[in-house]
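Thread title: Can someone regenerate the structure for this chain?

I was given the following input by a collaborator and told the matching structure tokens would be attached. They weren't. Posting the sequence so someone can regenerate them.
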Amino acid sequence: GFAVAGFCWAAGSDVLRGLDVLACGLTVFLAAGRFGCFSVGCCYGVPAAFGTTYPAEAGLPARLTGVRLLPIQLIEAAALLIIGAVTLVVAGGRPGVATVWFLLSYAVVRFGTEGLRGDDRPMVAGLSRQRWLCVIQAVGAGFLAARAIPGFDEQALIATAAVLVPVAVAGLVLVRSRRRSPLLRSDALDETWALIE
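Best answer:
Regenerated them for you:
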């Protein structure tokens, strides 16, 4: 984002419009990455009643080989394509609004889907690094909306936050309830599986 903004500024073009174009392209790029993750089994989901299974060659823990896992990668890809479609429609309007929409909506989606991933993530103060980045991204979007977009409707930002904040909190509650017991951590489950074998 900073590179695109710097390039647009140096070229004398509209920085916000350039960021809008970047936001449209990023949704497709990120969605394609999620399809790639799904195909090789990285960033896998939690065990679920429906989903996909991966062979031992995929490199997942032995306890998850052949177990149905939630296709969280495909769920994120679908969300990104929907976000991208809205971003594309909004990009034709006031410069910067599409960027704000992309940053806020993707931050909320990613914050929520983090709780449905089956692999362990490094935690800082109770949140994964990715969740902290989502918080920073959402704050940055609010700052961009308030400071850089002339005449941006603050009521629209407040209404958006009223919807997105509860969704983010629900995602946090999900991950807290799932990881409450240290026995449910991936390394503990892997150790138990190894002992059983």
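The longest helix spans residues 15-40.
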